[in-house]
Specification:
The chain is mainly β and 289 residues long. It has one domain: 7 Propeller (Methylamine Dehydrogenase, Chain H), CATH 2.130.10. The chain contains no helices and 26 strands. The strands form eight sheets. The chain has a four-stranded antiparallel sheet, with no helix packed on it. Keywords: WD repeat. InterPro entries: WD40/YVTN_repeat-like_dom_sf (IPR015943), WD40_repeat_dom_sf (IPR036322), WD40_rpt (IPR001680), WDR54_beta_prop (IPR049546). This is WD repeat-containing protein 54.
Length: 289
């Protein structure tokens, strides 16, 4: 698949100091803070989260290691394995919040709702009627959409009332909100678009030759990024019709690097960041044309 329209160039490698990236999907999160004019990135490895922040000219860069501890354990501060790390932007804060998910909690399909005030978080509710392990979740309009290992898409309202249960028949790795649709990445390398309101599949693309590991969306330019174990990253242009019209506008590989995560660094899609399985650097690509 050739480049068609956009030219991204590998500009630099950003080190993960004293660490690397675990072999798990969706293992990268990026957030930009307009208040500090800093970009934040984080990956997970074993029992730690590795964060990096930098300014727009890369003249200033800070690295941190955040260990994950089981605070409820009888053993004081026992280490736990980190399964996912995300930066979340909250209206009440000027900088993003780092959320670390571990295997210390429930893995049987229970969904927890947390209330966050200042630096404190408390459990505000849960939904435990479904017993399939959760693969991924995303906010979609005013709903929460959850994908599980059976291939179901469960749609919840803000009070965790289950509104819909859509069976897709897919082995889903990743879900994101794209325009008015939901995009699902699968273990056979497809990206499938769904209309959640109509409970209908709208389109599918054979994006990669191996499992999708991450998806991201840049709303400013209607661009979708996909990464895979096949070492390729691709950028897709989406046109907002009744049925999605999707075309590949950039494709390249990071040789011999199974890609674990990929994120745009801004809403315009002017640059993106990649992480690789067991690699101690992240790959920063910038749009050059």
């Amino acid at each position: 698949m050739s480049n068609r329209g956009l030219g991204y160039k590998l500009e630099r490698e950003i080190p993960i100091v004293n660490g690397s990236t675990s072999a798990i999907n969706n293992n990268l999160s990026v957030s930009f803070s307009a208040n500090t004019n800093l970009t934040y990135a984080v990956v997970a490895n074993k029992n730690q989260a590795y964060t990096v922040s930098w300014d727009d000219k890369f003249e200033w860069m800070v690295h941190n290691i955040v260990p994950a501890k089981d605070l409820n354990s009888l053993k004081s501060n026992k280490n736990v394995e980190v399964m996912q790390v995300k930066f979340c932007s909250l209206k009440s804060r000027t900088t993003p919040v780092l959320v670390i998910c571990t295997v210390a909690g429930c893995h049987a399909g229970t969904i927890f709702r947390l209330s966050i005030k200042n630096d404190n978080a408390k459990l505000a509710g849960s939904w435990d009627e479904y017993k399939e392990p959760v693969v991924d979740m995303v906010t979609f309009r005013n709903w929460l959409v959850v994908a599980d290992m059976k291939g179901d898409l469960l749609v919840f309202d803000s009070e965790l009332h289950c509104l819909k249960n859509i069976y897709t028949g897919l082995s889903i790795n990743r879900i994101i909100s794209v325009n008015n649709w939901l995009a699902c990445g699968t273990i056979i390398g497809q990206v499938v678009f769904y209309d959640i309101e109509k409970e209908a599949m709208l389109a599918e693309i054979n994006a990669h030759s191996q499992p999708i590991t991450d998806l991201d969306y840049s709303a400013g330019e209607s661009l979708m990024l996909s990464t895979s174990e096949d070492s390729f990253v691709r950028v897709w242009k989406l046109e907002n019709h009744t049925t999605p019209k999707v075309s590949c506008c950039f494709s390249t590989s990071v040789e011999n690097v199974p890609i674990a995560g990929g994120c745009f660094t801004d809403a315009q899609g002017s640059s993106f960041l990649l992480s690789g399985y067991d690699y101690s650097v992240m790959f920063y690509f910038r749009l050059v044309q």
